[in-house]
Structure prediction request, 226 residues.
Amino acid sequence: MDLLKLLNSPGWSWKLSGRNCIILAPSHDDATELLENCVDSLLSTAAVLKGNVQIGWRGCKRPFKITPEMAKIMMSEPSLHEKITMNQPNSDPKNNLLPELGFDLNELYCNPLPVYINQISDQRVVFANPAALAAQGKKPIEFLGESAAALNDPDELERRDAMLIRDGFLSEYQYNALRWYKDEETQLWRRKRMNFCSNFRRINFLGESCRLAIVLQAVETGKAVG
Prediction:
């Protein structure tokens, strides 16, 4: 799909605002399709501008956003699909689909939005894509295997997981939580208050009942905490 040709077609508009590129799609479905089909071009745009690429639609309250940090991580190494098929020239892409997930793991890895998989039993992080690691400012060894309990309000997290276990999914769920960042002055890890909007799904991952989360929007809302 030709990104520039699409953006100049009827129903679409875009503009540059400083270092940021703001795209307005005709609908949410069009914005989602743009992410799926033009992710490489969008990442390149964020990297070149050294700014955010924001994708909204008419009536949108929570636009998609690709940051230069996401672009740097996702463009600096081969994709998971390339790694899987590097020594398998006849590999069928359908083989990447895990029946227990209902998703292609490569799609989760390459998603420009932060994606997390946590064990519900102890909240340990068992998967985080490059966008998620960039959002937390941590390397895989620093983040994977750790409990996310410290980033969530215990009562809200218990209520969220109860709804997820009951219903199987939560769509555009809004909640307050925390996100890691490194204090530049002290070089210590701290947490900042955030308001999130995410899609959740309960899945069976590696034999464990887990929570799959795709963060649609994250807005800093308060002062940092220890």
User: Anything to note?
Assistant: The chain has two domains: 3-75, 111-225. The two ends are 46 Å apart (CA to CA). Residues 77-97 have pLDDT under 50 and may be disordered.
